[in-house]
């Protein structure tokens, strides 16, 4: 380009620009904006959500319950409806009124509505703290009923720091979720002329983004648990141990003779892991589920 007589020199281009004191001051004052500008990922979403929680003065219990509710149901309307019909003794809990108010005033359902509503997308609550979402799965499910296959079908599982074997299971589960569980979208923006809302389906690039996160598991004391081999990621043994041992109360005893996990591990010993996950997908290909 330097020898092209029609090209504009760098010095000539710079001469057409202006960076005065007002613009310098403005740019520096908006550093937080530029850090996130056009670069939203799970870490950025988590930062935005925590700032909203700070502004709303939510305490620890209330913050946990926001994450908990949207790990149970990634749908704002369904969360709000379920809260409204809870028993009086549940509504009397100290966390209930602030959480209800926070969700009502700060959460919207779809990412496409964020700019217009200036709210936080419900679907990104669990994905901005994947280790916590996996902990919540263990809170919801008795140790004997926890399933590695079921866990793999939570999209947050692929965001963990997994070794190659576990990530192959995570990919199968991620693909199953988007291709088999999510049946279209109810997003009203998808019906608008020239809408750029994508059809919900497995997309390799989105999965790759999830894999790059490499989050850690979270214990019941809300501290992170590193893999046995940090350089490799969580192994099958690590994940199985987490599913066996994680419990909130002593009554949640794990019985190997009754546990679904132990049956799954026996199948894994006899079969190639990828063949096993593919067989699971074929066997359950008729499963129907509404969009979360």
Account of the protein in words:
The structure is a single chain. By secondary structure, this protein is mostly helical. It folds into two domains: 39-128, no CATH class; 129-292, no CATH class. It is 53% helix and 3% strand. It is built from 17 helices and four strands. The chain has helices spanning 10-15, 21-29, 31-36, 42-55, 60-72, 76-84, 88-91, 96-106, 114-117, 124-127, 130-140, 148-152, 164-181, 204-211, 236-245, 260-270, 273-283; strands at residues 107-108, 120-121, 217-218, 224-225. Strands 1-2 form a two-stranded parallel sheet. Strand 3 (217-218) and strand 4 form a beta hairpin. Helix 5 packs across helix 8 and helix 13 runs parallel beside helix 17 (273-283).
Structural features:
single chain, mainly alpha, two-stranded parallel sheet, two-stranded antiparallel ribbon, 4 strands, 3% strand, globular
Concise description?
The protein has 292 residues and is mainly alpha-helical. It is 53% helix and 3% strand. The protein is built from 17 helices and 4 strands.
- Average per-residue pLDDT, rounded, comes to 85
* Main sheet record: 2 strands, parallel
Q: H/E element string? A: HHHHHHHHEHEHHHHHEEHHH
Low-confidence stretches: 278-292
Q: How many helices in DSSP terms?
A: 17
User: What is the share of helical residues?
Assistant: 40-55%
Number of DSSP strands? 4
* Whole-number tally of structural domains: 2
Specify Rg, calculated over alpha carbons: 23 Å
Based on helices, strands and strand pairing, what is the structural class? mainly alpha
| Strand residues, percent | under 5%
């Amino acid at each position: 380009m330097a020898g092209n007589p029609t090209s504009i020199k760098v010095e000539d281009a710079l001469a057409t620009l202006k960076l005065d004191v007002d613009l310098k001051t403005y740019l520096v004052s908006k550093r937080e904006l530029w850090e996130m500008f056009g670069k939203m990922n799970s870490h950025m979403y988590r930062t935005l959500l925590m700032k909203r929680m700070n502004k709303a003065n939510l305490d620890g219990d209330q913050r946990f319950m926001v994450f908990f509710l949207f790990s149970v149901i990634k749908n704002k309307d369904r969360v709000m409806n379920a809260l409204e019909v809870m028993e009086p003794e549940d509504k009397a809990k100290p966390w209930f009124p602030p959480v209800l108010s926070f969700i009502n005033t700060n959460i919207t359902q779809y990412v496409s509505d964020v700019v217009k509503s200036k709210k936080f997308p419900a679907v990104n609550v669990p994905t901005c703290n994947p280790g916590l979402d996996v902990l919540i799965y263990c809170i919801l499910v008795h140790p004997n009923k926890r399933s590695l296959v079921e866990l793999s079908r939570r999209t947050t599982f692929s965001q963990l720091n997994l070794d190659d074997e576990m990530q192959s299971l995570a990919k199968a589960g991620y693909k199953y979720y988007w291709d088999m569980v999510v049946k279209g979208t109810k997003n009203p923006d998808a019906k608008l002329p020239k809408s750029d809302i994508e059809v919900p389906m497995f997309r390799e690039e989105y999965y790759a983004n999830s894999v790059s996160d490499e989050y850690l598991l979270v214990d019941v004391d809300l501290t992170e648990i590193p893999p046995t081999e940090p350089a490799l990621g969580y192994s099958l043994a690590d994940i199985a141990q987490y599913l066996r041992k994680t419990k909130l109360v002593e009554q949640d005893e794990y019985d190997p003779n009754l546990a679904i996990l132990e049956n799954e591990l026996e199948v894994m010993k006899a079969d190639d892991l990828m063949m096993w996950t593919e067989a699971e997908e074929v066997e359950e290909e008729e499963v129907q589920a509404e969009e979360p």
